[in-house]
Amino acid sequence: MNGFEDLRARLAALDERQLRRARRIVEGGWTPAARLADPGGVGRDALAFCSNDYLGLASHPAVVEALAAGARRFGAGSGASPLISGHNVAHHRLEARFAAIQSPHVPVARALHFCTGYLANLAVISALADRETEVFSEELNHASLIDGIRLAYARRRVYPHADVEALDAMLQASTARRRVIVTDAVFSMDGDLAPLPRLLALAERHDAWLVIDDAHGFGVLGADGRGSLAHFGLRSDRIVYMATLGKAMGVGGALVCAHEDVIEWLIQRARPYVFSTAAPPALAVAAEAAFDIALGAEGVALRTTLHAHIARLRAGFGASSADGAAGDASDPSAAGWRLLPSPTPIQPIVVGANDAALTLAAALLDRGIWVPAIRPPTVPEGTARLRVTLSAAHTVEQVDRLTEALQELVERPG
Predict the structure, then answer these.
(1) Residue 324 has pLDDT above 50, yes or no
(2) In terms of pTM, does the model score above 0.90?
């Protein structure tokens, strides 16, 4: 079997398990009212519940204008890596502002800008850890955190989801020279929160770093949207905190905040930072505009709307759908679906089998509603789901339309 035959056989194996993924072409800017293009190029309108644009800032006029103004001032690119010539004043200003935002939670705070959250996680873990390090990784961590551990050649210890007692036992048994605890703050496929206060207590007790990926919490949780550290009221120099700018901020990129000594080490030794061309400065200008909105008075109103949508969707499912108990014929749990308990904009509906999740997603799209089916390896086998994500840009009527469509599919499947 030659290389092409091998690839085709492996693709066929994905098809057999209904695991092949396909991209959808979106026309125009991102809003809940999406315009899709099928392979023939014919436009199709769809009400989208699949974006991480939680505050609706991706198309906010002030953010869009800031991006344009940044491009007019700084051009389209950055020129080189940050350590060569790419550290623009816009990046520098954004880092300083993010450090100030997180300074109540991170002593002697300093921040560092990255092109993506994926690169930020690779950089943090591979710089802090090495072959003499044990990294204690949450079972449901994002792929970027797992890959960061691989890049570090560190010893990986996986602890069960939210099981602080198991983690404590692992840490007590560790004889490693260095220890790092790594966790998502908000789990991207379940929507629940990590027990960060208890994890921080373990980090301080066992002389470990606590690396927190708050991709889905920054802008949504905590006082003024400052994120999960503010939500839990945490403060420690053990914390290495990462937040992305492509979700609630609606732009792109990521920031890491930690004690200034940690950030200086990342600048010197984090390969994904040292060897990557810096992001376009215009994105940093747009991110600052997003900060103005998300962390100001308008952000309060947007989060109020967002959390009202979350409550409305969950109420539409009924209490039984949150805990997995059986419901009546109008309750989606009656079809074997289960809405996971989540206080965040991520509202997963666990269906089970891959084909069932694909069928449900297709039935919704036939009704003009776009919700993605998430399958292994993104989620464990047997837990394929629809990942509903809500935005402040949705209307009450749009949230109700989704709930009504799901109830209709329970009563009349297909």
Answers:
(1) no
(2) yes
- CB neighbour burial string for 115-140, b if at least 16 within 10 angstroms, e if fewer: bbbbbbbbbbbbbbbeeebbbbbbeb
More confident: 256 or 410: 256
Sign (positive or negative) of CA dihedral 130, 131, 133, 138:
positive
Rounded CA Rg of the chain: 22
Tokens of 182: 């790594």
Instruction: Supply the range of the domain harboring residue 66.
Output: 61-294
pLDDT over 90 at 331, yes or no:
no
* Cα–Cα distances in angstroms (integers) from residue 367 to residues 88, 183, 332, 398, in the given order: 47, 37, 17, 13
Does residue 260 fall inside a structural domain?
Answer: yes
| Distant-in-sequence, close-in-space partners of 397: CB < 8 Å, separation ≥ 6 | none
Report the amino acid identity of residue 407.
Q
Number of domains present in the structure of the chain:
2
152 closest CA partner among 67, 323, 266? 266
Instruction: Please name which of 141, 125, 121 lies closest in space to residue 133, comparing C-alpha atoms.
Output: 125
As a whole number, mean pLDDT of residues 165-192 equals 97
Beta bridge partners, 156, equal 135
Three-state DSSP at 180 gives strand
CB 107 within 8 A of CB 237: yes
One domain for residues 302 and 290? no
